[in-house]
Design brief:
Aspartate Aminotransferase, domain 2, seven-stranded mixed beta sheet
């Protein structure tokens, strides 16, 4: 017999499963989309961390509370000070203003709650993941043995790729650890920190990472060739060369074809960090920037960036999917059942992934492709790049105030005010605090620059407003 307290809890669970119960939460999201559409209101909060924390300074909740009251609290205390990435003037970090169709699919993913680790826990999700990964490997031209896995993002994808490279270079490393001579890892000087983070986590050590200098904000291929030749003469093993398709700082694309040729010449694993830029494969106008990606052994790709998917949806592609299974020499008979034959690939996706419990994030990618088509995704990519190019041209027309740093190759653009580093940093702080918009900042050529990333299809004809507002702040600071 169920006691009254348990009966009350079970009744609450059931009452929460209805469409009426979900309505307030769906309304919050829909209202957010509507409120940000006009471009009115602040992009971010002006409150301090302490002020926001005070709002949630309360004892651990006890007892049941109406779900509608919980939703009302979200609307009042959470939504009022979130970063509004759907606002047209948000041009900050590489996090997308997500496609609404994919946002709605998140409810289904969470409700079903299938784990992608093994086939028997997610039969349809496994098939969908293999299908979507198959589409992506075809776009990248990786060949008939290609495959991959979804990941939490580019950091995990690159880490897993380098584990696969380690398994080839030192097959016993999983059991015995790395052995001398320790390998080196080669990357561009502007590569994402995921590369050196992986080296530290794997026990290679960041001291064994070689940063190849840049030319025009991308890896200098001549310098890479000289580095590989020097290491060959020194008989130093190379774990991998990491090329970048869409550098975080500037959006620049390395010459993947030339890097791939060098890796083939020296027998080195070639990994492409395409977390940001691999989505250019959908664009008829921009896919040329990825020429040579088919020469990679592994490719990191984040649909939650330029495919405009909600966090998180990352992918790792491999020219030979078995390389990913070799990366994890893990035996777990209570979970993984293996392939029927030695020449087959396991149906259990967890054998090629760092994660065990893993959501069916593939569903939102599949939904986006079903809704817009590959050509639609490509069209949005081109739209964001076009907006960025327009901003670059406008900067050139106002050379008295602004200095252009590089020609954009995608949707990322760096520029600076014609003033000190301190002034550029202050302008960014004041602009973001004002709520009028949001931009980021970085250091290029030992100078502080402002950095814009156009991740929102609603960012139309707002470039003039950005430059006007930033210029006004800057000139006021100079007076």
């Amino acid at each position: 017999m169920t006691d009254p307290r348990t009966a009350e809890l079970l009744a609450a669970l059931e009452s929460d499963t209805t469409l009426d119960a979900a309505g307030p939460f769906m309304k919050i999201a829909a209202d957010y989309f509507a409120q940000t559409r006009t471009g009115e209101g602040p992009v971010s909060t002006a409150l301090t961390p302490a002020a926001i924390a005070a709002r949630f300074d309360e004892p651990l909740p006890m007892g049941l509370k109406p779900l509608a009251d919980v939703a009302a609290r979200i609307e009042r205390d959470v939504m009022s000070d979130v970063n509004r990435l759907m606002h047209p003037m948000y041009m900050g970090h590489q996090v997308s203003a997500p496609l609404a169709a994919a946002v709605w699919s998140e409810v289904v993913i969470s409700a079903v709650n299938n784990s992608q680790a093994v086939w028997e826990m997610s039969p349809v999700g496994t098939v969908l993941e293999e299908r979507v990964i198959g589409w992506m490997t075809q776009l990248a031209g990786l060949g008939p043995r290609a495959g991959g896995t979804f990941t939490s993002g580019g950091t995990e994808a690159t880490f897993t790729a380098l584990l696969a490279a380690r398994a080839e270079l030192q097959p016993d490393a999983w059991r015995d650890g790395l052995k001398a001579p320790y390998p080196v890892l080669i990357h561009g000087e502007h590569a994402h920190y995921a590369v050196t983070r992986a080296a530290g986590a794997m026990g290679i050590g960041t001291a064994n990472c070689i940063a190849v200098p840049s030319k025009d904000w991308k890896m200098d291929v001549d310098a890479l060739a000289a580095t590989l030749e020097r290491l060959r003469k020194e008989k130093r093993p190379v774990l991998a060369v990491v090329g970048t398709a869409g550098h975080t700082a500037t959006g620049a694309f390395d010459d993947l074809s030339a890097i791939g040729d060098l890796c083939e010449k020296y027998g080195v694993w070639f990994h492409v960090d395409g977390a940001h830029g691999a989505s250019a494969l959908f664009s008829a106008k921009h896919k040329f920037r990825l020429a040579g990606i088919e020469k990679a052994r592994t490719v990191a790709w984040d649909p939650h960036k330029m495919m405009l998917l909600p966090l998180s949806a990352g992918m790792l592609l491999a020219r030979d999917v078995r390389d990913l299974e070799r990366a994890f020499s893990q035996k777990a008979p209570y979970l993984f059942h293996g392939a029927a034959r030695d020449d087959e690939v396991s149906l259990d996706l967890g054998t090629r992934s760092f994660q065990c419990s893993r959501r069916s994030d593939v569903l939102k990618v599949w939904v986006a492709l079903q809704r817009l088509g590959a050509d639609g995704i490509g069209g949005l990519y081109e739209h964001l790049c076009s907006l960025t190019s327009s901003l670059y041209e406008m900067l050139g027309e106002r050379g008295d105030v602004f200095e252009r740093i590089h020609v954009p190759e995608g949707n990322i653009l760096c520029f600076r005010m014609r003033g000190t580093d301190e002034a550029n940093a202050r302008v960014r702080e004041e602009y973001n605090r004002s709520g009028a918009g949001w931009v980021t900042s970085t250091v290029l050529g030992e100078r502080r620059v402002l950095r814009v990333t156009v991740m929102n299809p609603r960012t139309v004809r707002t470039e003039t407003a950005l430059l006007d507002q930033v210029a006004i702040l800057y000139l006021a600071m100079q007076s």
